[in-house]
Design goal:
Protein name (chains A, B): ERD (Early-responsive to dehydration stress) family protein
Oligomer: homodimer
Structural class of chain A: mainly alpha
Shape of chain A: globular
Strand content of chain A: under 5%
Number of helices of chain A: 36
Radius of gyration of chain A: 31 Å
Distance between the termini of chain A: 81 Å
Transmembrane segments (chains A, B): 6-28, 108-125, 373-397, 417-444, 465-484, 572-602
Subcellular location (chains A, B): Membrane
Domain CSC1/OSCA1-like 7TM region (chains A, B): 371-643
Domain CSC1/OSCA1-like cytosolic (chains A, B): 197-360
Chain lengths: 772, 772
């Protein structure tokens, strides 16, 4: 175990690193030529067009105003200054709610840290257990529960503290849940009109021999929601088109690149290129001509593919975005069961148009359940057996293996430096590469599972990542060994000794986790604000590729908060904080500093940098809440285990009430607040509808919604080729005809088709009457 | 362990007992004076007024047609003859679905038994393990898995069989789920109009300083469901009134009794009674006069209480039954979230009027969650520690204890017979009494938990009873010891040895369970058909009390299927069958006989006897399905444990796939079929509405629904006193006035109140227009 001076040294190093990052950031950000790296958000919002300073030519690139260097930390108060409502306006609710996670961390851990230091540190410190034992120990251990003699009555302090911490955490969690739920409802109810408020995603439209999907959807909703149905947009399978468009974009980039090269060389020499693999083989051709012809070819293919999509019914997926006349109608449809067969006509709130994950819209119900099973099994193996392929790669990546596989490398291999590099670094690299790719692997799993919105994908990936981290980082660090070895041990251990095994080794790992917090938390967060990678990429692109303002905008790459990797990382700190709060309170200040620093840094980034790709109105909060509750219960169970090794067994019955109460608290919160995140109250919808009707009696909702849910490939395509959005425009001009229900025989309802017709007529009359 | 001849003897005894019951039943049922005991259902339906035979006076009481005695088993084919649709008409869907549980048992276990006997019995029999060992064993053990030597390859037969049985069970379960779901939807969609189709129960109406609950409900639904809201019925707290009415009924009974006595004595002597405790103390009065005055007093109180209920707002509970113009409107309201605060304005399908549990309608949300916690903890203690109070009672109920408490009993206590009776029987009786009261205790727990319908109460009690039986009967018999001792053992055992411990002792308990099935199953079911208790009570009542036809009807006491005790009992047989299918297949025929016998008996009872109190349209099937799945998983885990003691460890990985697949199957079924049991598809509602509108365009839904959800105390009361239903009539005559929304300021919607008014006007116009 590290002594306190070692910890102090590590702290000093990490503080210095973090400080160096911050200073570097402070200097770089005020250089005008970095302005687009550190303030892309403002450029994207159109509020900033060029660096604020103006003056001499040099000043366009380097900041010569030395006074500004003195105020190098003034971004911090600036980041904190923007009030929350304005921030919601500026960056969306998701970002603000994400920040609240850090804020929740501060609210939970600052009072806990204070209480722990005033009460528990003296209780722990004033013992001589460690000094009397012959173990080596450090000052940090003297502050921890290890310093209390076995069977001491002082453990009641820890017991009381465990209760206090639990109640405080629950109190804060409840308050935060309440606030976030209110913010969400307010945000949804706020004045902005959004297409997803009126729209429902319908999946698994059953196949019908007589009607196309388009007709079927229209008839179904005309019949079953006669007063509310407005229009719909079927989903096209545009995956091929999307591929073609992407290809065209790449080729276009190359064309630009060669064009620029040609222009820079003062049109002296047409650039040449090879047509083969990676431009290394094949015959040389004029690059500009080549790409121009390629692009033209692609354009033809694209328009052909488009034609096919519009005309052929094979490209229509059994899913549709159905829009309603009012938010009330959409809320009703999204929350109700439509058909007798619960696996068809599945309705759910349409995600925001930006948030839709188009590829998954057509997966049938049975396939979904099978996919879920496959992924559950795959994730189990990934979590517990991921070390096996890595160990295999590691065993391959040794000197002998490489030499055997590639004898010509022998010469290089015998150089001492290369040898030691491969032996020392390669095994670590295999693991590191895996860990870097892990979020992507988890994301792929979620995609395979069939979620229809990016936000849902990210939420699912986040919970998987959390489980992985819990098992492999948290438990893996406490009980050294691979996850599978742990699993094996746990299966062969009595249920009550598992918390004991883990609990007993917790105090010993405190110093390790303190170092972890400093390296991963402090330095990591400080590194985040520096944006080293985007900085380098931006300047490279700017130098080589950027031609127009639009190119420069693309080169900025503002990035976004990635919930699927960021949130599980934060949750690890919640877990560490709650587990160590009673055991080794010295860890708490490190957690508090992490949360404080991260809050300021991410607030700054959200204001100035990140550009969120979608807006889910904070729908991830129940997950965040649930994971903090999990951490709380884990901490309680481990404390029970730890105390039972300390011969304070009389405390067990008292401690057992804690998880029971916590689980109950969780269920209470679930019932009380979760519906706000998954359902949409009719009252709200009605108020909003009524208000809107009063303010804009002539609003044409239909026109507003028309193109909202067109596949992005139909409008995201750049307009260089001059072609218009084929489908969306045609669709928009085509008023859906009043199709008579063709099959009265099926349902034996002579009254129905008549009714739906008359309703439509009546409704159109109403519309006309109210808005001449 | 019992030998096969012992089992044979037990079987013979039980078969004889069952047969004796059946013969007794066959003889008693054809006696005209028992007709109302064995065919009450037909009397209640008004299809039978007196015994079928007619003739001499004696023949009114005793059946002298001796040929009918020869056909004493002809009730069996008669019971099976009624086709299912007719049975649904006759007894309701609940009863038919309940019968399907037995049918499912037959469908699962008949093929399994056949397969087990053709494949596994030879495999088990042709070993000499038991003969070579020095253990005592019976022929039954030779047929079981115990006869296979350790590490034998023959275990692969059992493995394959486990797969076959699992797949067969799942196949049947899926088919049954499908059929029941279809039956339910068909039943709901069938022609009968029922008030609950149009009605939604609203709970937790928030308190409002300005408006009464009545006004508030009306305004809320007028605003939020403007096109669909029809009317509502607030819930009165009629608990006091209900108590008074019951009291009056009891007194009335006594009055009848004395009146009858007086009449029988030829009006010679007015009967006397004492007014004190139990009629034993106090002064003597004329009984008829006394009760007449008492009843009059009560009548006054009742009418006063009624007055209070109608006038005082304190008696109005924050709950209401809200009716809609169409099924579609009700389906929408029941399935959606109404208010921003998810703990108020909770809507759910109104249970059938008969099914409402009135006392629980006013429990607020927070109280509900607290109650749930309390009951969860209480149930845990009940399950694991119920032996403690019983042991305490048992320790009191010994000779010394009684003598100490009541010295005057010493004389009696010293009689040898009394002494041995107390010592031998009392401890057993304490346990038996507890077990008899257990369902009532569980029911009280469910009531305390706050469910609003009797069917939900019964479902919850059933699942608790199942858990209790699983732990205390199934596990308790396999591992002898109290539940708490088991729990203690399990906590201190490794997780993987728990199935091993249980699994290893399973084969040894086969004979015990065979006896259990015969005693509890065979004889129990045969006893059920005899209806000994109702028979005796009926004749007693008939002799002493019955005066009018209505009294006789009340004396019949047809009883009903009690789901909360019956279903868990059946589930125990499913569990035994599935667990022993692979281990000791000889148990299967006993199970099959039980299911067959029970099916016939209960079908007969449902046709002729039981009178269901409510109709939930088979909404308990997901529970039934879930518990059979649980039994399947338990059987798989125990087989894994058992095989691992047989040194057939290579089978474990193959077996582990089974529970995973079974759980996945359960999730699949849950998604595929469960919504049919908890939600009501809009398509169905719309079809039904449209049909109805076409057939009965002038139907006055409002009049139809008016008194549907009035507290039963207002109309169940007998009309002896000549008073009418105070409230319901007044309510019915009082057209709910068109209340203007008083508080436009609150919501800032000048348009709203105007809108709701105009809507109402418009709607009434529509109503008038369509049906002049």
């Amino acid at each position: 175990m590290a002594t306190s001076s070692e910890i102090g040294l590590a702290a000093a190093i990490n503080i210095l690193t973090a400080f160096a990052f911050l200073v570097a950031f402070a200097i770089l950000r005020i250089q005008p030529f970095n302005d687009r790296v550190y303030f892309p958000k403002w450029y994207l919002k159109g509020l900033r067009n060029n660096p604020l300073q103006s003056g001499a030519f040099v000043q366009k690139f380097v900041n010569l105003d030395f006074r500004s260097y003195l105020r190098f930390l003034n971004w911090m108060p600036a980041a904190l200054r923007m009030p929350e409502p304005e921030l919601i306006d500026h960056a969306g609710l998701d970002s603000v709610v994400y920040l609240r996670i850090y804020l929740t961390g501060l609210k939970i851990f600052v009072p806990i840290a204070c209480l722990a230091f005033t009460v528990m540190v003296p209780v722990n410190w004033t013992n001589r257990t460690l000094e009397e034992s012959k173990l080596t120990f450090s000052d940090i251990d003297k502050l921890s529960i290890s310093n209390i003699p076995k069977g001491s009555n002082r453990f009641f302090t820890h017991l009381v503290m465990a209760y206090a911490f639990t109640f405080w955490t629950c109190y804060i969690l409840k308050r935060e849940y309440e606030i976030v739920a209110k913010m969400r409802l307010h945000f949804i109810a706020s004045e902005q009109r959004r297409p997803d408020q009126f729209t429902v995603l319908v999946r698994n439209v059953p196949p019908d021999p007589d009607e196309t999907v388009n007709e079927l959807v229209e008839h179904f909703f005309l019949v079953n929601h006669p007063d509310q149905y407005l229009s719909h947009q079927v989903v096209y399978n545009a995956n091929i088109l999307s591929k073609l468009v992407n290809e065209k974009k790449t080729k276009r980039n190359w064309l630009d690149y060669y064009q620029l090269k040609y222009d820079r060389s003062n049109k002296s020499k047409r650039p040449l290129m090879k047509t083969g693999y990676l431009g290394l083989f094949g015959k040389s051709v004029d690059a500009i001509d080549f790409y121009q012809s390629e692009i033209e070819k692609l354009l033809k293919e694209i328009s052909k593919e488009r034609e096919k999509i519009i005309t052929s019914s094979k490209y229509v997926m059994p899913a549709a975005f159905v829009s309603f006349k009012s938010r009330w109608g959409a809320a009703v449809c999204a929350q109700t069961e439509q058909s007798r067969n619960p696996t068809v006509w599945l309705t759910e709130w349409a995600p925001e148009p930006r948030d839709v994950y188009w590829d998954n819209l057509a997966i049938p119900f049975v396939s979904l359940t099978v996919r879920r099973l496959i992924i559950a099994v795959a994730f189990f193996f990934l979590t517990f057996f991921f070390m096996i392929p890595i160990a295999f790669v590691q065993s391959l990546a040794n000197i002998d293996g490489i030499v055997k596989a590639a004898p010509f490398m022998r010469g290089i291999m015998e150089v001492e430096f290369v040898k030691s590099f491969i032996q020392g670094v390669m095994p670590g690299i295999a693991l590191k590469i895996f860990l870097i790719f892990l979020p992507s692997i988890l994301m792929m799993m979620s995609k395979f599972e069939g979620f229809t919105s990016i936000s849902a994908l990210e939420r699912r990936s986040a919970s998987r990542y959390y489980i992985f981290q819990f098992i492999n980082v948290f438990l893996g660090s406490i009980i050294t060994g691979t996850a599978f070895q742990q699993l094996n041990t746990f299966i062969h251990q009595p249920a009550n000794t598992i918390p004991v095994t883990i609990g007993a080794s917790i105090p010993m790992k405190a110093t390790f986790f303190i170092t972890y917090i400093m390296v991963d938390g402090w330095a990591g967060v400080a590194g985040e604000i520096l944006r080293l990678k985007p900085l380098i990429f931006y300047h490279l692109k700017n130098f080589f590729l950027v031609k127009t303002e639009k190119d420069r905008e693309e080169a900025m790459n503002p990035g976004s908060l990635s919930f699927n990797t960021g949130e599980p990382q934060i949750q690890l700190y919640f877990l560490l904080g709650l587990v160590y709060a009673v055991v080794t309170p010295i860890l708490l200040p490190f957690i508090v500093v992490f949360f404080g620093l991260a809050y300021v840094v991410y607030r700054h980034q959200i204001i100035n940098v990140y550009n969120q790709q979608y807006e889910s109105a904070g729908s991830f909060w129940p997950d965040v809440h649930g994971r903090i509750i999990t951490a709380l219960i884990v901490s309680q169970l481990l404390l029970m285990g730890l105390l039972s090794t300390k011969e304070a067994a009389q405390s067990t019955p008292l401690l057992i009430a804690l998880p029971v109460l916590t689980i109950w608290f969780h269920r209470f919160c679930k019932g009380r607040y979760e519906p706000a995140f998954i359902r949409f109250p009719l009252q709200e919808a009605m108020i909003k509808d009524t208000l809107e009707r009063a303010r804009e009696p002539c609003l044409n909702v239909k026109a507003y919604l028309e193109n909202a849910y067109v596949h992005p490939v139909f409008y995201n395509e750049d307009r260089w080729d001059g072609s218009d959005d084929g489908i969306s425009d045609e669709e928009s001009q085509k008023e859906p005809p009043l199709v008579a229900t063709k099959r009265p025989s099926r349902t034996n309802t002579p009254a129905r088709s008549q009714r739906s017709e008359s309703t439509r007529t009546l409704l159109s009359v109403t519309d006309e009457r109210s808005c001449p």
